[in-house]
Design goal:
About 60% of the residues lie in helices and about 10% in strands. It is built from 58 helices and 22 strands. The strands form seven sheets. It has a five-stranded parallel sheet, sandwiched between helices. A four-stranded antiparallel sheet has the order 4-3-7-8, with no helix packed on it. This is Transcriptional regulator.
């Protein structure tokens, strides 16, 4: 605890100096004789909440110590006791009792202790009740030893709260000090007022005499009475000095003009939030001290933040009464909206969900202020609050709002090793992707080992085809999602507040949507503010809201809350003025509120600017005489008629500064965006001043003035930003349109002259300014600007901002001369046209894409110059499902490159046979060594051929075209001859598929697929696709199916890493399918389906999602209680409409396979047998190598054998033996996944033929091999079939019961709850305990 004392001064208030005295140093005390008249004059009316605080504050501010106040108070008490003014006994407080009345000490000569003096002082100040907030003491004539005029006793004047005295807290909060008020009281009787100075002067002269008399009175009541009479006589003598009244009034007025009235809060501890070394938010204490600055006659608030020794700062703020403190105002009229936001934060924190809060309203209504109310609440929860803003001038720069919110976070937390390790572990090599957007992440990645990346981004290595651009966008979004996953796991809650999302780019809105819908992110609140008048139904924000609402109907893990706010109503404006001016409600305030509301329509930002304008113009001013704010409503109405909107008001305010440099600076700032670094601005400012031949004011002075005037605010060490978009708009309006065009050109040219590193940061701003500035007249300038547009377009593509890239590319083309395809500008023209065709194709602008492609094909000087547009056209055809046209286009290009393919059906088949023979010859035991020794393919022409072959393979596979095998053989041939490319691994996987499906050559297929996996280590770009092809078409035939699961998971993450989301989603689809085939727990598979189907829909992989939905429905039929019909026409996948899949032959065949599977597992063998006969071999021949053929043959054979045993019909026997032969052939070739299938079908065959011992042996082998290999569902099915054979054919109930219980155990372990219930209901007697 600190105490305050004052140095002695004869100069009174203006010359006194204050200092701090620690408690262990004691207090410096003054004798009553040292009390000056000017000091006593200051103490006229005091209102305090605690007498001890009054003692400290008055000592610091007015140079009056504790002892002086005790003497003054005793004089007052003596006068109140002895002077009879025609009324009853004097009451010194509003609620003082008789027992608390001041008692007269026996003698003035008595001595008292310091504690007794303090108690007497508190008693006098509080009216007998210590701590009373309303206690008042008034020094008035009539004290002992002073002349006593004839005066009418009055109560102290009731003062309005003194405005303007506020304390700034850390974080920008300003709190009003209510504890101490010091002001002047003027009684209505002017004689009393005029007499006060003389009274005080005489009282001061009498103090040396009063002190010994007081001691005597403490011992003797008679002596006390005598001294009181003497004081009364002196008081009466003062009344005779009326000739000095006028002079005293003038002196008093001069003194009043010097007085600063301040409201001072007691010394308190204020909670502050900081991030500790572990990244958590801690609450520290901040102690505030108050010191009077005699040189400035103002109260200085000194704030000391006390926490960790390394984080200690001191700030000083001057507090005066005649200033409008807008920062102290809370939100007016937004209580309901605040509660809504608080509820969202509470839900996200407590239930670990995700919340999207959308705040809409017109500009200036207070959207950002409402969002910022969550900051304190988030810190209270020890969470993290970050905010960003999308800039209209940077709307072509992707992720600006999200990046601005993350920059401070990265900078602040980069020193926390635990947080950095968490980020690196979560992101891995994706961290290098985000570094391009968040350079601050470099500090996190420093000194940490990261996985190497082959290239900087997918877009950089994939320019020339739409899939690469799409992959780039998803790659960046996925990296951001993983970043936020790590951050959210580190804090109890994370609030991401983004302002002006109506200016957000498509990539940013897609990112926000993915963050909100990501199940792996918890306790996240995203707050988006946007202008309702700029967002219609066709706006991207509206589309995002509709998509999220549709998704939210089925997903309860996130909620959307929309908050719409409008202008303030008249009562709200009135309440704001009452709080701002610290006045009571009155008719005058109501009249001012009426004018303000009518002028501003209740727009919060306009209202603040309007009131500030009134104060600056002297229409609203503080009166030191009245200690109150004054205004004239008619004058306000007359003098503010021209300010029709806030932009005009701000423009007038800027122009009224009479500072030409400021008027020139603000438009420059506006051109450079809503925020700018001081170093960058300095270069531009110097260049602009030099260009105009004027440099009359330093930049630092201008920036400080702009901050002081409320135009700018400073963030961090050197960043300045406009306080509101309307201020930026007003800054633009300072310059007419003609000069603004010239200014943009000037600023753009200055930025373009920066060095390469600095210019890269300001590339979009510079190119936008140059495009909007003066049109270049010379050819050299036009070509330079076209080159800058090409550079900006490439950067936009890398950042997945394809709309911006299209705009820059088209702008660059417009700048090209008529002879653009000439020798001098050919390369620039080719680059612009190729890039324009790529982004136009990605955006779906087919006609524009085809125009630019045709231009390139018409003017290209060589075939290689057309490669990029050929790829664009082929990708466009594939994405529009024009597979035949895509295949024809690719074959035509391959023909031009010297690679012809046969056209006739027989020619293709003959060439295919020849290719198979050549390939089998080339595959020798040394084939893997040969592959490992192959170099990388470097010839661009050969790489283009491989790329075209790869696209043609995709089209041919989708068409089931016979030329598919020839394309694969050509790819293998070129790889063996010219080296490995990124397209080689998928080709080798397809070759292994041909060996398995077409030739049943499992050994060589295993060797080839191993080579493909080794190639993946050299080229990760196609790793996901290779994993999908290998695991779906090859590995289930040569390896245990459980081994495929890990490879598929790796392929899934490889696809997300490289942006190949199509292959990534196929990998997870096959992962679920093989997991179902391998006996993985159904509950886990059901959870996987729910997660990944949603992700497939997010990536717009609708077809893959439909395939996966079929797995989910199979699982649902095995775990949930559906009514099931065994009729032939029934669709066993209950809840799934078969007609949805009729448009795809593969999906129809797959649906039939699932039907047969469920028929076999659920025991409806009649339906399964009939369906099996009806299907034939269409699926087996239509999709060679597909892993679905293995379980399909088994389940079909099981149902056929069951019906053959039951009906003895030959058709069932014939088809059953055919399926058994297939399984046997695959087992003989070495398929490890068909051994238990063969044993069970052999057991069914033996049971059909009546071979009991052989049947029992095969049943036991089927159970043993199934359970040993992990196929628990197949073990359950083998036990069930064995039990039914024992029960129905051999009538061995005991053994049958044992096997049936084993079947139930295996089914339960698998998670097939419905099947368990079906078995128990079917055999209640058999399963009943003995």
């Amino acid at each position: 605890m600190r105490r305050w004392s004052s140095a002695k001064s004869s100069g009174g208030f203006s010359s006194g100096s204050a200092r701090v005295v620690n408690a262990d140093q004691g207090n410096e005390e003054l004798d009553g004789s040292e009390l000056s008249p000017d000091e006593l004059l200051e103490i006229v009316a005091i209102r305090v909440s605690d007498a001890s605080q009054y003692s400290a504050c008055t000592s610091a501010v007015f140079g009056i110590n504790e002892k002086d106040l005790q003497v003054q108070n005793k004089i007052e008490k003596q006068a109140a006791t002895t002077t009879n003014l025609g009324n009853d006994e004097v009451q010194e407080g509003p609620s003082r009792s008789k027992s608390d009345k001041a008692k007269v000490p026996p003698s003035f000569g008595a001595t008292t202790t310091t504690t007794k003096k303090k108690d007497d002082l508190k008693l006098a100040l509080t009216g007998g009740q210590q701590g009373s907030a309303d206690a008042s003491v008034v020094l008035r004539p009539g004290s002992p030893g002073l002349p006593q005029p004839t005066l009418q006793r009055e109560q102290p004047r009731q003062l309005h709260p003194c405005p303007g005295a506020y304390m700034e807290r850390p974080g920008g909060n300003v709190e009003r000090a209510d504890a101490l008020r010091i002001s002047l009281v003027r009684p209505e009787d002017h004689q009393a007022m005029d007499t006060i100075p003389q009274i005080v002067s005489v009282a001061a002269d009498s103090i040396p005499q009063a002190v010994p008399v007081a001691a005597e009175l403490a011992q003797d009541e008679e002596a006390t009475a005598m001294k009181l009479k003497e004081l009364e006589a002196k008081t009466i003598e003062l009344a005779a000095k009326t000739e000095e009244i006028e002079r005293l009034k003038r002196d008093l007025q001069n003194l009043q003009d010097k007085i600063h009235v301040a409201e001072v809060a007691p010394v308190t501890a204020v909670p502050a939030i900081r991030v500790n070394s572990r990244g958590r938010c801690d609450v520290t204490n901040e102690v505030e001290a108050f010191v009077l600055d005699p040189t400035q006659e103002a109260l200085v608030v000194t704030t000391t933040r006390s926490s960790a020794p390394a984080i200690t700062t001191t700030n000083s703020h001057q507090v005066t009464a005649n200033k409008l403190r807008f920062a102290s105002l809370g939100l007016i009229g937004r209580s309901q909206e605040e509660q809504t936001l608080a509820a969202c934060l509470h839900r996200a924190t407590q239930t670990k969900t995700r919340e999207l809060v959308l705040i809409s309203g017109n500009s200036g209504v207070g959207k950002t202020a409402l969002a910022m109310t969550l900051q304190a609440k988030t810190c209270k929860e020890k969470g993290l609050f970050i905010s960003g803003k999308f800039d209209f001038c940077l709307r072509d720069d992707p992720y600006t709002g999200v990046a601005s919110a993350c920059r401070d976070l990265c900078s602040d937390l980069s020193l926390i090793d635990e947080f950095c390790d968490e980020i690196v572990e979560e992101l891995g090599s994706e961290l290098t992707i985000l570094v391009k957007i968040l350079p601050e992440l470099q500090t996190i990645a420093r000194n940490r080992n990261l996985p190497n990346r082959e290239n900087n981004s997918v877009a950089e290595r994939s320019l020339g085809h739409r899939q690469g651009l799409d992959e780039s966008k998803k790659q960046i979004a996925y990296a951001f999602r993983r970043f936020f996953r790590a951050v959210c796991s580190f804090f109890p809650c994370l609030v991401l507040s983004l302002d002006d999302i109506q200016w957000a780019d498509t990539a940013s809105l897609d990112l926000l949507e993915s963050l909100v819908t990501d199940d792996k992110i918890s306790n996240l609140v995203v707050v988006g503010c946007f202008r309702a008048n700029e967002v219609d139904e066709t706006h991207l924000v509206s589309k995002m809201i509709r998509d999220l609402q549709a998704n939210g109907n089925t997903d309860e893990s996130f909620q959307i809350t929309q908050v719409s706010i409008g202008n303030l109503e008249l009562p709200n404006v009135r309440q704001m003025l009452i709080e701002l001016l610290s006045m009571k409600d009155s008719d005058e305030v109501a009249a001012l509120a009426q004018v303000c509301h009518k002028k501003t329509h209740g727009n919060a930002f306009f209202l603040v600017q309007f009131v500030s304008h009134l104060h600056e113009k002297g229409l609203l001013e503080y009166s030191w005489r009245l200690l109150n704010w004054t205004w004239d409503v008619p004058a306000i109405t007359a003098k503010t008629g021209s300010t029709s909107n806030v932009v005009d008001l701000l423009k007038n305010k800027m122009e009224d500064l009479s500072n030409d440099s400021m008027v020139r600076l603000l438009p420059i700032l506006a051109c450079m965006g809503s925020s700018v670094e001081e170093s960058t601005l300095a270069v531009v400012w110097d260049a602009c001043c030099k260009d105009q031949g004027d440099h009359d004011a330093p930049l630092t002075t201008l920036l400080a003035t702009a901050v002081e005037e409320g135009f700018l605010e400073k963030r961090g060490q050197s960043t300045y930003q406009f306080v509101h978009d309307k201020v930026q708009e007003a800054s633009f309006s300072l310059v007419d349109s003609e000069h603004m065009v010239k200014l943009k050109s000037t600023v753009g040219k200055v930025l373009a002259e920066f060095d390469e590193t600095a210019f890269e940061v300001h590339l979009f701003v510079a190119v936008n300014l140059l495009n909007e500035g003066c049109v270049p007249t010379s050819l050299r300038e036009r070509i330079q600007l076209a080159s800058l547009n090409l550079q900006a377009a490439k950067k936009a593509v890398v950042s997945s901002a394809f709309v911006s890239a299209s705009k820059y590319a088209l702008a660059g083309i417009e700048l090209l001369p008529a002879c653009k395809w000439g020798d001098e500008h050919y390369q620039l023209t080719l680059e612009l046209f190729c890039l324009a065709s790529e982004v136009q194709g990605y955006l779906g602008h087919v006609k524009s894409m085809e125009y630019h492609c045709d231009e390139v094909k018409a003017h290209a000087r060589c075939l290689s110059d057309t490669f990029r547009v050929q790829n664009v056209l082929q990708d466009s055809l594939l994405n529009r499902h024009l597979n035949e046209e895509a295949l024809a286009l690719g074959l035509n290009l391959l023909k031009k490159l010297g690679h012809n393919f046969p056209k006739g059906q027989w020619s293709i088949k003959a060439a295919t046979v020849a290719g198979i023979l050549r390939t089998k010859v080339s595959i020798s035991p040394k084939f893997p060594e040969r592959i490992e020794s192959l170099p990388s393919m470097t010839d661009p022409m050969k790489i283009q051929i491989m790329h075209t072959l790869d696209k043609c393979c995709t089209a041919a596979y989708l068409l089931m075209h016979d030329i598919f095998a020839l394309l694969i053989f050509k790819n293998i041939q070129l790889t063996l001859r010219y080296g490995l490319s990124q397209y080689s691994p998928p080709a080798f996987s397809f070759l292994a598929c041909i060996l398995v499906g077409g030739l049943n050559d499992f050994n060589n297929a295993s060797m080839v697929v191993s080579c493909a996996e080794k190639m993946m280590a050299k080229s990760r770009n196609t790793a996901s696709r290779t994993a999908f092809v290998s695991s779906c078409l090859v590995l289930p035939w040569v390896d245990p199916s459980q081994n495929c699961l890990k490879k598929l998971v790796n392929g899934y993450y490889d696809g997300l890493f490289t942006g190949d989301t199509d292959s990534s989603m196929w990998c997870i689809n096959v992962y679920i399918g093989i997991g179902l085939q391998s006996g993985r727990n159904l509950a886990l598979l059901e959870a996987d389906c729910a997660i990944y189907i949603k992700q497939m829909q997010e990536f717009e992989r609708v077809k893959i999602a439909k395939f996966t939905q079929m797995y989910a429905q199979v699982i649902a039929n095995l775990t949930q209680q559906y009514e099931f019909s065994a009729t032939e026409e029934a669709w066993p996948l209950v809840g799934l409409d078969e007609h949805l899949y009729n448009d795809d032959d593969i999906m129809v065949d797959l649906g039939k396979e699932f039907q047969n599977r469920l028929y076999a597992i659920l025991g409806e063998h009649a339906g399964g047998a009939e369906l099996s006969i009806a299907r034939g071999d269409r699926f087996l021949k239509g999709a060679p190598g597909c892993y679905h053929h293995i379980p399909d043959a088994f389940h079909r054979g099981l149902s056929l054998f069951a019906m053959a045993r039951e009906t003895k019909k030959r058709k069932y026997k014939r088809h059953a033996q055919k399926q058994r032969a297939l399984i046997g052939a695959w087992t003989k070739k070495g398929n490890p996944n068909t051994i238990h299938y063969k044993h069970l079908l052999d057991a069914e065959n033996a049971a059909l033929k009546g071979r009991v011992s052989q049947a029992k042996e095969f049943y036991r082998k089927a159970v043993a091999t199934s359970s040993r290999a992990g196929f628990v569902h197949d073990a359950a099915l083998a036990c069930e079939r064995f039990a039914e054979y024992l029960l129905h054919d051999l009538e061995d109930k005991e053994s049958a019961a044992l096997q049936m219980r084993e079947a139930i155990r295996f089914y339960a372990e698998w998670g097939a709850t419905r099947k368990v219930d079906m078995v128990r209901n079917k055999y209640p007697d058999l399963l009943r305990p003995n």
